[in-house]
Amino acid sequence: MFTISLCMIVKNEECIIERCLDSVQHLVDEINIIDTGSTDRTKDIVRSYTSRIFDFTWCDDFAKARNFSFQQATKDFILWLDADDVITTEHQRKFLQLKQSLYHPNVDAVSMDYYVTLDADGCVESSEKRFRLVKRDRNFQWQGAVREYLDVIGQLYHSDIAVTHLPRKIDIHRNINIYERLKKDGHPFSARETFHYANELKLHQRFLEAINHYTSFLDSTKGTADEHIEACLNLADCYQQLNDAKQATQAILQSLLYDRPRPETCCRIGHFFMEQMKNKEAIYWYSQALQQPIEQTMGTLKHAYSTWHPHFQLSLLYNRLRLFENAHQHNEEARKYKPKDQRILDNRTYLLTQLKK
């Protein structure tokens, strides 16, 4: 069985650090905490878990901080987490099974699902895959001052373990401030940095600037298919916010150039036809969303577009056609995913009334 060093960078996490460490301390063999300038009780709390606490002077560069954290590890593999991450009981069991069964000489990195956002009922809204467990002696390096990524190669293993993100608060200005400092300092943005800077501009409702950077990213032809598809869909959102429906539709269609139709793309095309009262065309595309395989990619997966959302839209569309049995069946499928959603419950009551007639 291989050994694991946990490496974390933290700052002022007194409210949540225990929750994270409690969920992982029995899974790892060493805990390394890199503090970037806490002024609260974070260090005092951490001392009850480990004596391996290291100071790092913050320099607006997440990759440098994470690489420093990896340098403190001494075990076979490195696990990285943030303070607002937890591993639930179910996935703790899966983690221990992996630790006991994985033949580690043949594996350089292990990916895990990252549940980025949860809905009000605790169901996963969006998730990503990230390489969470990496072999220490491969000396993999983090890249990027913000929205950093771990550059891994070799024998890669995709696990079914998940890490859940439970943020206490989100500083929406942090990332864009770092990007704009880099820009001011004359830092040449890579294609990936251009893409993520565009995402931050969109978040801050600077839609024209975001459009320019998404377009620059797409014109570069660099980046992954997942990033290109996400850029197209985000570009469509920006045009929609500027009331340019034609450009928004063209951006959605452009996403089809990079891979098979993703569920989100199918739903967006379905919505386009639904708004024009072209019900049969809309039904085709929402049905396609349900038939597309879930890709094992490193991109963001928005679960609604392959689960309850197309079912609910299909229910509304079949209701327009007065095919109430079909409408009821799809509404029931949507209800399996969202049993407390008031729209689905109200639609159910209405459809049952129609069926009785």
From TrEMBL:
It comes from the Bacteria. The keyword RNA-binding does not apply. GO terms for molecular function: glycosyltransferase activity. Keywords: Glycosyltransferase, Transferase. It holds the Pfam family TPR_8. Its EC number is 2.4.-.-. InterPro entries: Glyco_trans_2-like, Nucleotide-diphossugar_trans, TPR-like_helical_dom_sf, TPR_rpt. Residues 5-98 form the Glycosyltransferase 2-like domain. It is an enzyme of class 2 (transferase). PANTHER family: GLYCOSYLTRANSFERASE, POLY-BETA-1,6-N-ACETYL-D-GLUCOSAMINE SYNTHASE. This is Glycosyltransferase. It comes from Lysinibacillus zambalensis.
